[in-house]
Write a structure and sequence with these properties.
The protein has 363 residues and is α/β, with parallel strands linked by helices. It has a single domain, classed as Bacterial extracellular solute-binding protein, family 7 (D-Maltodextrin-Binding Protein, domain 2). Helices cover 45% and strands 16% of the residues. Strands 1, 2, 3, 4, 7, 8, 9 and 10 form an eight-stranded mixed beta sheet that branches. It has a two-stranded parallel ribbon with strand order 5-6. α4 packs across α13. It is globular and about 65 Å long. 49% of the residues are buried. The protein binds (2R,3R)-2,3,4-trihydroxybutanoic acid. The site of (2R,3R)-2,3,4-trihydroxybutanoic acid has 9 residues, from loops.
Length: 363
């Protein structure tokens, strides 16, 4: 309730700002100074000509991770460098930990222009840009470096552009959420048989839900910001996320079993409100494109390091891990085979074939 009120207040402030700006007869959008109020500056209208003066621009940058997570670490590093590179003209106002709303609201915000930039996984973003569903194909990529090359190559460039066309945001780059794996508080999962009857929280994404259900679990969509409590209160028995996030969000405190068999290599989409981008002077636009890419490089580096540290720390804290044998892994792959057709129905054969061919070429 408290969170809802906060969100409502943030939304009302943002809407009020938009009206205030409109009432000024299309005057320049001066960015709001950084403050403790979690309401980002409204975006300038698209028609506004780019400035070339020394105006200081503030960009709100939102994500759902905690301040110790790789998303926050990469944001701070990139923001510092961007401020320097722009001689203090481009300032990132960092809003971690779903401060501006749950992931769906963050996506809506970046489309409405009440949030300037967002880092978001391939789960919730598929509802806004359906081609993202292709990134949810199960048991295709179990090596992060193959995933990184896939998204850095032609396939990723094409897909990023396609998401901008579909949703209307500006795609800046592919970061890495990581290799998603199942964890739960009930029992060790060695084969899909062990998942029978387990309530597993998923993102609000049909393909993620289908994966869990085809493995015998019961998929329960819950917003990421509600997940810790849902595990703690037993609303769900388990979840699936990468190692770094399972650690940084404290999920390992409320599960005790983890199966090390990645079912999805989940990329992060780094997105910007298109009109806000258009309102920046050309040199700052170029910096945004460059530092959007740099952010992805930093975030992947932090993720790799965090994954390694997280596994050690969680094991030391009592988390039991199990790595399925090849024969056991095959059972997971077989059980989720029908999901591929679901993805084909959503995004078309061409995109799925390009994804599979892209992965195969890198293996
Ligand atoms: O940004 O909801 C989740 O499980 C995600 O991994 C989240 O989107 C991270």
């Amino acid at each position: 309730m408290k969170t809802n009120l906060k969100k409502l207040t943030a939304l009302l402030v943002a809407v009020a700002m938009m009206f205030a700006l409109a009432a000024c007869g299309g005057s320049k959008t001066e960015p709001a100074p950084a403050s403790n109020t979690p309401a980002p500056a409204a975006s300038a209208p698209a028609s506004e000509p780019a400035k070339t003066d020394d105006t200081v621009y503030h960009l709100s940058w939102a994500h759902s991770s905690s301040t110790s997570d790789r998303l926050a670490l990469a944001t701070e590093k990139m923001a510092k460098e961007l401020e320097e590179a722009s001689n203090g003209r481009l300032i990132i106002d960092h809003y971690p930990a779903s401060q501006l709303g749950a992931e769906r609201e963050e996506l809506e915000g970046v489309l409405l222009g009440t949030i300037d930039c967002v880092v978001i996984s391939g789960g919730p973003s598929a509802s806004f840009a359906p081609s993202v569903f292709v990134t949810n194909m199960p048991y295709q990529v179990s090596d992060r470096f193959i995933g990184q090359k896939l998204y850095d190559g032609d396939f990723g460039k094409m897909l990023g552009k396609k998401t901008s066309e579909e949703a209307g945001w500006l795609f800046l780059g592919w970061g890495e959420n990581g290799l998603r794996q199942f964890s739960n508080s009930k029992r060790e999962i060695r084969t899909p048989e062990d998942m029978k009857g387990l309530k597993i929280r998923t993102m609000e994404n049909d393909i993620h839900m289908a994966i869990v259900n085809s493995l015998g679990g019961s998929a329960t969509p819950i917003a990421f910001s509600e997940l810790y409590t849902a595990l703690q209160q037993g609303t769900v028995d388990g979840q699936e996320n990468g190692l770094a996030l399972t650690y940084s969000m404290g999920f390992y405190e409320v599960v005790n079993q983890m199966t090390l068999l990645p079912h999805i290599y989940d990329a992060y989409l780094v997105l910007m409100n298109q009109q806000k981008f258009d309102s920046l002077p050309a040199d700052l636009q170029a910096l945004m494109l460059e530092y959007g890419q740099k952010y992805c490089v930093y975030e992947r580096e932090f993720n790799l390091q965090n994954d390694e540290d997280a596994l050690k720390a969680m094991t030391a804290a009592g988390l039991n891990t199990y790595t399925p044998t090849e024969a056991e892994a095959q059972l997971f792959i077989e059980a989720t085979k029908p999901v591929e057709q679901m993805v084909r129905d959503k995004v078309g054969d061409e995109l799925v074939d390009a994804y599979i061919a892209g992965v195969q070429a890198l293996k």
